[in-house]
């Protein structure tokens, strides 16, 4: 009988009708595939049982998180090959592979079943979100989702994000460090908002406080930061005290729907709107509009997906939903702009930063890999594997234009229609204009 690696390679190539571009190493020590290619390591045949029980992305994700499969060699090259074979083959290929009636699929499943070993399938890894019930995006459910993602240990995030502690797309120049690029992004946001001494800024989804600190220290703003993460809030307050900025910054554990102390001169929402969800997005836009003074500005920094031919067919990514951002949803840029305008905002500028996020994610992956043992101790082996896969795959998605990220600058118009915006666009690219470093 052929060894496990050769059998798996033959089954996969028969199913996909093309050669595998990765090498397989199986649990029995056998190897098959092109020499020198990245190696897909299948450490235990339990991984096959997971795939049979949950075909597709979720089964593979469970095996990865459990440590039953791994990749040796270039992670990005391997993920690119696998994505090209399994997810990016076009509608015709997908239609020919997925139906259970397809004889190739049935033969592939029988071959896996023969190799997979005794049932039942193993339980999902502990890092997987347990199924939620009830309507999406209630206050309680959103708080639980945010806690799953962000309350995994500030020490872990410090290793991944670096000293800046900014968990959103940086703004790169050639030769700059991650910390330089994150500082430049925060300063870009402040300049787009036109912040000046004494302005009230609401930072929605304030993370570990980096935006609030920069706006207060460099521009003299009075900042209210809100988050649903207890760990983020505790870390942000500690940093603010160390900076001597407690008189300028307040950090609250609070839902954006419960903020009632407007009006504010400006609002920043950086990497937060992805958690809002389509059923709540108009409410989000209405609430932020109501919290701004007439003439006040909103900077909405948000990941966007490509539009679907049938928008009703959009589904949240199974791996992301189960392990990374529970209930998170991406919307096309056009839909986000339309909703903001329906709420009363005037959109004044849109800047695409897609390539910047790919660079940022690659730096975060490098940080995680460099500090792997410490990261595992700070959280769990499964959680560290989740973040490595999620960030590397996301980097490729940005590079291949599967998703993007955009800064939308919008204004709440004055009663007569004025905007208090400069006549010439993009004046924020000309100089920093802050009152400090």
From TrEMBL:
It comes from the Bacteria. The keyword Electron transport does not apply. Keywords: Lipid metabolism, Methyltransferase, S-adenosyl-L-methionine, Transferase. The keyword Transport does not apply. InterPro entries: CFA/CMAS, CMAS, MeTfrase_dom. Pfam families: CMAS (PF02353). Coiled coil: none annotated. Residues 156-396 form the Polyketide synthase-like methyltransferase domain. Residues 120-140 are annotated as: Disordered. Belongs to the CFA/CMAS family. This is Cyclopropane-fatty-acyl-phospholipid synthase family protein. It comes from Streptomyces anulatus.
């Amino acid at each position: 009988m052929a060894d496990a690696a050769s059998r798996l390679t033959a089954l996969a190539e028969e199913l996909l009708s093309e050669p595998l571009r990765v090498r397989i190493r199986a649990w029995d020590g056998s190897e098959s595939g092109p020499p020198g290619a990245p190696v897909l390591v299948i450490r235990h045949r339990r991984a096959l049982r997971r795939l049979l029980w949950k075909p597709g992305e979720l089964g593979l994700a469970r095996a990865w998180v459990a440590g039953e499969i791994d990749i040796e060699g270039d992670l990005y090259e391997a993920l690119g090959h696998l994505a090209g074979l399994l997810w990016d083959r076009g509608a015709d290929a997908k239609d020919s592979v997925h139906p259970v009636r397809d004889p190739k699929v049935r033969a592939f499943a029988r071959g896996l079943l023969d190799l997979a070993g005794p049932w039942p399938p193993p339980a999902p890894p502990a890092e997987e979100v347990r199924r939620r019930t009830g309507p999406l995006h209630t206050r309680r459910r959103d708080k639980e989702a945010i806690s799953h993602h962000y309350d995994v240990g500030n020490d872990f995030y410090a290793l991944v994000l670096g000293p800046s502690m900014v968990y959103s797309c940086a703004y790169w120049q050639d030769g700059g460090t991650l910390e330089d690029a994150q500082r430049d992004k925060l300063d870009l946001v402040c300049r787009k908002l036109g912040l000046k001494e004494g302005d009230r800024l609401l930072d929605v989804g304030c993370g570990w406080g980096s935006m609030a600190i920069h706006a207060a220290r460099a521009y003299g703003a009075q900042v209210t930061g809100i988050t649903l993460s207890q760990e983020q809030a505790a870390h942000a307050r500690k940093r603010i005290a160390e900076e001597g900025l407690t008189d300028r910054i307040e950090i609250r554990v609070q839902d954006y729907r419960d903020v009632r102390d407007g009006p504010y001169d400006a609002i920043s929402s950086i990497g937060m709107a992805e958690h809002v969800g389509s059923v709540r997005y108009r409410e989000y836009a209405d609430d932020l509009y109501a919290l701004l003074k007439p003439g006040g500005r909103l900077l909405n920094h948000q990941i966007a997906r490509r539009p679907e031919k049938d928008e009703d067919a959009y589904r949240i990514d199974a791996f992301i939903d189960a392990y990374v951002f529970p209930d998170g949803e991406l919307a096309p840029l056009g839909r986000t702009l339309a909703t903001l305008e329906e709420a009363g905002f005037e959109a004044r500028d849109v800047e695409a930063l897609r390539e910047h996020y790919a660079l940022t994610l690659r730096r975060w992956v490098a940080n995680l890999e460099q500090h792997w043992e410490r990261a595992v101790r700070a959280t769990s082996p499964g959680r560290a594997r989740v973040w490595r896969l999620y960030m590397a795959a996301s980097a490729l998605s940005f590079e291949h234009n599967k998703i993007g990220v955009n800064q939308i600058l919008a204004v709440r118009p004055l009663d007569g229609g004025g905007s208090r915006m400069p006549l010439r666009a993009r004046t924020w690219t000309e100089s920093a204009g802050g009152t400090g470093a």
